[in-house]
Amino acid sequence: xxxxxxxxxxxxxxxxxxxxxxTWRNTLWSISLLLLQLVGLTYNLLSLFFIPRNVASSIxxxxxxxxxxxISGIVTLSLxxxxxxxxxxxxxxQASNIDTLMYKNTxxxxxxxxxxxxxxxxILFHCVDIYIWNYNNGFIMTTVHEIIVHISSITSSIMACQxxxxxxxIKHHLxxxxxxLNNKDIHKFRQxxxxxxxxxxxxxxxxxxxxxxxxxxxxxxxxxxxYGTLSFLHSLIVKRNNKIIISTGLTQIGWTLLGSFKMIIxxxxxxxxxxxxxxxxxxxxxxxxxxxxxxxxxxQLQLFSKQIxxxxxxxxxxxxxxxxxxxxxxxxxxxxxxxxVLIQI
Length: 345
Hints:
This is Gustatory receptor. InterPro entries: 7TM_chemorcpt. The chain has 345 residues and is an all-alpha fold. The chain has one domain (8-344). 78% of the residues lie in helices and 0% in strands. It is elongated, with a radius of gyration of 23 Å. It starts with 7 loop residues before the first helix and ends with a helix.
């Protein structure tokens, strides 16, 4: 089912990625893609027995990065086939109620979101990488497996885009709440915030595990490709290069930048949405400091302040960690450490 926040482009991308199961055809397509990812994961695990044990980057790429990619795709494709997906209907009702409470004309206040076109650019990059891989290798089995890996990555990217659109919607509603906050309608604002909090909890429960796996796969991919990029730059310095090395090196640079961009955009948008909640606490405290407010309004403001503190609007990766700038700084530390370790091996 298409939500009020999904553009037509994103909706059709979700259908193509197997994330929509409204009809038997869509369900069959989703199951087919899921089976394809299971085949890809099996092939990947079998190929572990044939990789050279003395090349750390190959072990990391085939032993960790690719399996994480497949697992992320499998979990993402499993979501529409579970009963938990029916919770999204309740989520749609919540979103509609929030808009009805906050705005008279809901379309006028919809957040301006440009994430779907970014996914199209990512898909084009995947296509270029498949072409370069096929040109450099030419082996049918490895090319087919590479295509399956790319499908998994594209699927999880579309899922992440959908997740971030909902995050942006919550951020947009909180921002409007901050702008409209006054002493007259505190009870109404408390109702709106409660619905936004439930909205946020539902998003975390549906997408938390997928986002966590997506972040893990991005970390692993960035480490592998950053090491490959450094090796490529070293080959340029010693003038030991050819068309294959150059094309592979350029794609590794692209993968490093793409993986970094995905992690940054996820942490950035979640942090910005959480900041609106922090701003709301500050504004409520300022209203409490005003003079000549009635006892009833003061009680409502105090209750609202406690409500915001106890029910923080924050986004978590399945309860494992909070997605914000602190997570991004931790990721930077992990990336730096493991890249240095790989260089020293």
